[in-house]
Design a protein that fits this description.
single chain; mainly alpha; two-stranded antiparallel ribbon; 16 helices; elongated; membrane
């Protein structure tokens, strides 16, 4: 107990001195010894959120009660102090399962106020903003995500419809007739030419992948991952794809609204991710059909693209709806409330994309097809456009952190800090 009290006092003093170092005058500057400690504690200027994580990790490093809960605590024990890069790495390694919060004897209202899930969530939000590419777009993480997402989806839907009308009299007449009657053969490309859609959506998707790739590359460079062996890559991929660390460390699951364990978030994440991948596979197969075999849409109900898209759409809709329900009921004490608009915007876009896609399939031979197509294309475009600056980024950064954790476990002696 005395050791923990001494550590937390030291951590608070160091964090405070580090925050004052850039603005203090000569008369009010900290003593040389304390200044030297502050520089060691934060060799790169840390934000208030990062300093708070560093303070809590010092306390956790002395206690180690939660060492078996997830990957964060074993990685923490490899460090004697916590620099900016270490904090960013550990924050993205955290899955916010809540187990450590409910098990911690130093959680609020204790004076140590250890709340690892909330502190880590605050740093994750800052990480996405800091590593966004282009950097100016990082501010998008802090906007009202739900309003922006729906406004963007509606705006894009109207833009696509307007673009089709202005694309020429033939296209305009086709679209006008489609809104009033069934399109023969459920032919989407009679309304929007295939090459136009492929170019438009391909460009947006490639930009999203580029932006995410640049951001995560910067993150990996700063946290100094080291050399990735095949074994480390396989382990990281397994941990990411199975959501290993959403089991609470004991296989019973996470804590959501209270201290009861549940595997609901892990299951809903699986439904969402694999549903999304099945939808992506449906698009990929349809592209192969179109360009390699000359088979153009629409495809029969029992064809591979339609079956993949149907199963994927149902899975995505169920998973995203479940995640939204959990988000609405999650204990606010251990979350970063700033992230709720971003979280809910992403989930809403997933629901909108899957629901409109399934509706489009169900009513593709009716007069509603054209309207549903416009809504679906707008939702998909909004999802792609916001992908690098929304909740989707957490999966990319978390996978990168899992890779670094796998590399460290294979390293005989991990560095005391990631910046060494």
């Amino acid at each position: 107990m005395q050791q923990l009290e001494a550590l937390t006092r030291e951590a608070r003093e160091l964090a405070a001195s580090g925050a004052r170092a850039d603005t203090a005058t000569n008369a009010g500057a900290p003593q040389p010894a304390l200044r030297e400690q502050a520089i060691r504690f934060a060799p790169q200027a840390m934000t208030a959120h990062e300093s708070e994580v560093a303070r809590q990790m010092q306390i956790c490093n002395a206690c180690r009660y939660c060492e078996g809960f997830c990957a964060v605590f074993p990685a923490m024990t490899k460090r004697l102090s916590f620099a900016k890069a270490d904090v960013n790495y550990l924050a993205n390694l955290c899955h916010n399962c809540g187990a450590c919060y409910h098990a911690c004897q130093y959680a609020p209202p204790h004076e140590f106020a250890v709340n690892v899930p909330k502190a880590m969530a605050q740093v994750r939000m800052d990480t996405y903003t800091e590593y966004a590419w282009p950097r100016a777009f990082g501010a998008l993480y802090k906007r009202n995500g739900l309003t922006v997402a729906f406004a963007l989806a509606l705006g894009l839907a109207l833009f696509i419809a307007l673009g089709a009308v202005l694309g020429g009299p033939a296209v305009g007449r086709t679209l006008g007739r489609a809104f009033g009657s069934a399109t023969p053969g459920a032919n989407f490309y009679a309304i929007f030419p295939h090459n136009v859609l492929a170019t438009l959506f391909g460009a947006v998707f490639l930009f999203a992948m580029l932006a995410l790739g640049v951001g995560v590359t910067r993150f990996l460079r700063d946290v100094s991952t080291g050399d990735a062996t095949p074994g480390a890559l396989v382990e990281a991929a397994h941990d990411a794809l199975t959501l290993k660390y959403l089991d609470g460390g004991h296989g019973e699951g996470c804590n959501e609204a209270d201290d009861r364990f549940t595997l609901a978030r892990r299951r809903f994440h699986h439904l969402t991710f694999y549903g999304f991948m099945l939808c992506f596979a449906a698009t990929a197969v349809a592209t192969l059909y179109h360009y390699a075999f000359g088979l153009e849409a629409p495809y029969p109900l029992l064809s591979a693209p339609v079956l993949l898209g149907t199963v994927g759409g149902v899975s995505l809709l169920a998973g995203a709806s479940g995640l939204l329900w959990l988000n609405l009921h999650r204990d606010p004490a251990r979350t970063d409330l700033r992230q709720r608009p971003m979280d809910r915007a992403f989930i809403a876009l997933l629901i909108m994309t899957s629901a409109s896609g399934l509706a489009l399939l169900a009513w593709r031979d009716t007069a509603a097809m054209a309207g549903l197509l416009v809504v679906h294309l707008g939702a998909v475009m909004a999802l792609f456009a916001t992908m690098p600056y929304g909740k989707f980024a957490h999966g990319i950064f978390r996978s990168a952190a899992l890779m670094k954790a796998a590399i460290e476990r294979r390293t005989a002696k991990a560095p005391a800090t990631a910046s060494d």
